[in-house]
Design brief:
The chain is of the alpha/beta class. The protein folds into two domains: 143 residues, ATPase, nucleotide binding domain (Nucleotidyltransferase, domain 5, 2-Layer Sandwich), CATH 3.30.420; 124 residues, ATPase, nucleotide binding domain (Nucleotidyltransferase, domain 5). It is built from nine helices and 14 strands. Helix 4 packs across helix 9, helix 5 crosses helix 6 and helix 5 packs across helix 7. The longest helix is centred in the last third of the chain and has 23 residues. The model has no long low-confidence stretch (mean pLDDT 93). The protein binds adenosine-5'-triphosphate.
Length: 280
């Protein structure tokens, strides 16, 4: 069952591991690699799903969930892995990855990126299912709004019964902001991720958010769904849940930090491995 306090405690801890390492020797590890349109994130958990360490980097190496710059993606994953290994003093040998729904044909390329960086891909799942490893919902729709796409998965009795992914995401909000304020996309991105400006920008980006809600409404037609569970970086936008709830006509729940939900859920699916020390 979804428990807002449990999700918050877990994600807060993962956020802490971006700067603090919690590695207990002798424990097996699990690694999740999230190759996103806007960010590449690596999360390390222990065998009990306790957060150990995490690294992330802004990147433009994917479009609509598909790798378009293989070398760029490989360089970043290698770099994040090296940083984590240095922090932990062990070698990371296995990883799980996740694909946006509908991009399964690109699984090989995602795997090559991770394997090229020296990790065996031991599990592949879809992104909303990864998010639900953390959210743990039984019935409802998980909506993952990332940089390039809005992905959704309908859960009935804890099982995924329908998935979809549409190419409208956070980048589209930035484009609207850039056009409205006559600024560059980079500047728009900065304004968008500054929570102090969220109240000001919400009315500007509202039509795009309503479009995303419409996507969810269309895809959930015919299903007995009463709650939307939001995750993905774009859901960090304060007030997005209110716009969504009104436009989709469904109760909308948002964890306090929706950004690290999917990468954490990916790591949860990794087959645990006993790491080898780098210094013996
Ligand atoms: P995709 O899932 O589409 O492949 P991704 O995995 O990179 O992309 P996420 O990392 O979940 O997606 O989200 C990235 C998006 O979230 C970007 O558009 C980014 O600008 C936006 N974002 C990140 N932090 C915030 C914030 N604090 N406020 C608003 N938007 C944010």
């Amino acid at each position: 069952m979804y428990d807002a306090h449990r999700v918050k405690a877990l994600i807060d801890k993962v956020e802490e591991t971006l700067t603090t390492t919690y590695y207990v020797k002798g424990k097996q590890l699990k690694v999740g690699v999230d190759l996103g349109t806007a960010y590449i994130v690596m999360v390390v958990l222990d065998e009990d799903n306790k957060p150990v360490a995490a690294e992330l980097r802004f990147a433009s190496v994917l479009r609509d969930g598909v790798v378009v710059d293989y070398t760029g993606a490989l360089t970043i994953v290698k770099e994040l892995k090296a940083k984590l290994e240095k922090r932990l003093g062990v070698e990371l040998i296995h990883a799980a990855i996740a694909m946006p729904p509908g991009t399964e044909s690109s699984t090989r390329t995602h795997s090559y990126v991770v394997e090229g960086a020296g990790m065996e891909v031991t599990y592949v799942l879809d992104e909303p299912t990864a998010a639900n490893n953390v959210l743990n919902i039984r019935d409802g729709v998980v909506v993952d709004i990332g940089g390039g796409t809005t992905g959704l998965a309908i859960f009935e009795d804890s099982k995924v019964t329908y998935v979809a992914d549409e190419p409208t995401g956070g980048t589209h909000l930035s484009l609207v902001l850039a056009g409205n304020y006559k600024i560059s996309l980079e500047e728009a991105e900065k304004i968008k991720t500054d929570s102090k400006r969220h109240r000001e920008i919400l009315p500007v980006v509202k039509p795009v958010v309503e479009k995303m809600a419409q996507i969810v409404k269309t895809h959930t037609k015919g299903y007995t769904i009463d709650t939307i569970y939001m995750c993905g970086g774009t859901c960090c936008l304060s007030g997005i849940e209110g716009v969504f709830e009104k436009a989709a006509g469904l109760t909308t729940v948002k964890p306090e930090n929706p950004f690290l939900v999917t990468p954490t859920g990916i790591a949860m699916s990794c087959i645990p491995f006993m790491p080898v020390s780098l210094y013996q």
